[in-house]
């Protein structure tokens, strides 16, 4: 299966097939800058990333913001109990983050873990994210993902034009078939649980594979040699150099 650019109309340019593993900046260039901040997203492009991966949650006043943890580090208070005006300045809104990612496609992880204080069993947050993206009218730039399968299934239902991916740690037998059956574009497994056979199985099902979070240049080369579609990394500059030397 040929590895292709995920989305083909960035900056008004037509899509072209590229036989090259893509570099996704994990929470932006998070080794060089504070993760999930505008500075990290701006740096990602400068350091050669093809895409940015970021995390989205909801505030008490229903604003979508970019933050990995369910609680604010400085206060321990859940984001869902905190209005936006009381958040630390470094936490951007989703719109601010996407503005900073201009020229790249964006993997938006919807955080909806049943063990966290902001868990939404109705998956309404998926609809809020889709509405925010619809206002931008750039469906080819987005890839929605979540560890909760029901959340991305909801995304597929309400926004079939936006690509989706299932995040996993382990990869049980039959995962590729399940991802394909639900209509998701990609599987996002933890990189140490990936081998060449899994990538081949996913590709046979028409499913792309983007691994997280690999910062080891030699492992990056090995994964790319196996045909992985994307590598999510905290060091996009190191990843770019590693892939360039293949």
TrEMBL record:
Any one GO molecular-function label of the UniProt entry: phosphoric diester hydrolase activity
Gene Ontology process terms (BP): lipid metabolic process
InterPro entries named among the record's database cross-references: GP_PDE_dom, PLC-like_Pdiesterase_TIM-brl
Lineage of source species: unclassified sequences, metagenomes, ecological metagenomes
Protein's recorded name: Unannotated protein
Pfam families, per database record: GDPD
Domain GP-PDE: 21-243
């Amino acid at each position: 299966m040929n590895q292709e650019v995920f989305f083909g109309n960035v900056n008004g340019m037509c899509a072209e097939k590229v036989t090259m593993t893509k570099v996704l900046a994990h929470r932006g260039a998070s080794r060089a800058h504070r993760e999930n901040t505008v500075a990290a997203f701006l740096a990602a492009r400068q350091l050669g990333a093809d895409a940015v991966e970021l995390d989205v949650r909801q505030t008490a006043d229903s604003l979508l913001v970019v933050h990995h943890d369910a609680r604010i580090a400085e206060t321990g208070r859940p984001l869902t109990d905190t209005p936006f005006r009381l958040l630390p300045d470094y936490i951007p809104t989703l719109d601010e983050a996407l503005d900073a990612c201009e020229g790249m496609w964006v993997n938006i992880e919807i955080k909806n873990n049943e063990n966290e204080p902001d868990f939404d069993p109705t998956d309404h947050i998926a609809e809020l994210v889709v509405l925010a993206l619809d206002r931008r009218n750039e469906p080819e730039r987005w890839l929605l993902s979540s560890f909760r399968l029901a959340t991305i299934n909801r995304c597929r239902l309400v926004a079939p034009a936006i690509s989706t991916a299932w995040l996993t740690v382990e990869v049980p037998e039959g995962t590729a078939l399940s991802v394909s059956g639900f209509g998701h574009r990609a599987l996002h497994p933890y990189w140490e649980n990936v081998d060449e056979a899994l990538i081949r199985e996913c590709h046979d099902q028409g499913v792309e594979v983007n691994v997280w979070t690999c910062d080891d240049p030699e492992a990056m080369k090995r994964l790319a040699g196996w045909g992985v579609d994307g590598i999510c990394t905290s060091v996009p500059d190191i990843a770019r150099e590693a892939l360039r030397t293949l």
